[in-house]
Amino acid sequence: MRCLAFAAALLCACANPAGPGQSAGELSSDRGSRGPTGPTGATGPTGATGPSGESLLPQSGSRLKGQRQVHRGDDGSSAQAWVNAFWDSKLGIECTPGGAADGQQRCLPAGRITSLGAFSDPACTARLAMAWIGGSDGGTPEPVVPYVQEGWWGESALRYYHLGTRHGGPAWYVDRWSAGDGGAPCLQYGEPAQYEFYQVGAEVPPAEFVRFTVTRTR
Predict the structure, then answer these.
(1) What pLDDT shows up at residue 58?
(2) Measured at the alpha carbon of residue 216, what is the angle toward residues 68 and 90, in degrees to the nearest 5?
(3) pLDDT of 101-113, one tens digit each?
(4) What pLDDT sits at residue 30?
(5) In this structure, are residues 163 and 129 in contact, taking their beta carbons and an 8 Å threshold?
(6) From CA 193, how far away is CA 145, in angstroms rounded?
(7) CB–CB of 125/119 below 8 Å?
(8) Those residues with Cβ within 8 angstroms of residue 85's Cβ, 6 or more apart along the chain or in another chain
(9) DSSP of 59-91, one letter per residue?
């Protein structure tokens, strides 16, 4: 009987470690302060590299070179702007995306380019290329691009021809504004001429210009 009473008292003491008159909650409040933080663990492995984002600045390829214009101030300031024209390192010209004669988007010649619209004879049958000289401000125009453009920029099927030699004689044009029943008259350009005139060479195959694949993302 004494053994049973002793076992019961021991069981109660193990179930409630608090001393006489002390609750378990009061016992937990007597814990000491938290110890110092342990050392930092080893760095984990590097995660996979995410996809690269698309840059708004032109990116160079093996042939087309992206261009940027940088302004640097004497005080150390600088400003950078992107140029909407590539440098074609094979052809030695600037070019911009446009619709070529084969229906593809290609990097087409840009700059002071000549266009069709003049003729070397009074019947307006022998075509000449023409380049705008400008007004009488005395400025020197930039060199012409060695290509002749047929069609208006923005059209989807521009054709190009090699630029020939300079035409030094008179030139004529078709006056479509004065067209009548007999057709549009062929008139001679007056003096002083506001244009330079050139012979027109062979057509340039569209594949001569770098092709673009156009995608749109959101």
Answers:
(1) 80
(2) 45
(3) 999 999 999 988 8
(4) 61
(5) yes
(6) 20
(7) yes
(8) 67, 94, 95, 96, 110
(9) ---SSEE--EEEEE-TTS-EEEEE-S-EEETTT
- Amino acid residing at 76: G
Element (H, E) at 26: helix 24-28
Angle 65-82-140 from CA coordinates, rounded to 5°: 85
Q: Which two tokens stand for residue 65?
A: 């070179």
Please state, in angstroms and as integers, the Cα–Cα distance from residue 38 to each residue in 35, 100, 122, following that order. 9, 68, 97
The set of residues, in sequence order, having a beta carbon less than 8 Å from that of 123 and lying 6+ positions away, is 186
162, burial (CB in 10 Å: exposed 0-12, middle 13-18, buried 19+): middle
The pTM assigned to this predicted structure is: 0.67
Tell me which residue has tokens 């608090």: 18
Q: Which two tokens stand for residue 147?
A: 């290509």
For residue 52, give the H/E element and its range.
Answer: none
pLDDT at 100: 95
